[in-house]
Design a protein that fits this description.
Elements (H helix, E strand, L loop, with lengths): L1 H21 L12 H16 L6
Helix pairs in contact: 1-2
Length: about 55
């Protein structure tokens, strides 16, 4: 599962980076209507990936 999670995390990061590179709104602090869900997916997957070995 970790490899799949990493693959999805990296894909989301690449998608977000590509959108942000061409969107002047997303280059600032608040993502645009299209960029917001891309950023949210990236952030959610990043959190899951970074916290995958932490026990609660």
């Amino acid at each position: 599962m970790a490899d799949d999670l990493h693959t999805r995390y990296m894909a989301a990061a690449n998608t977000w980076d590509a959108h942000r590179a061409g969107c002047t709104t997303c280059q600032h602090t608040t993502p645009c209507k299209t960029g917001a869900p891309l950023f949210e997916r990236f952030a959610r997957l990043q959190d899951a990936y970074l916290n995958r070995h932490r026990s609660t």
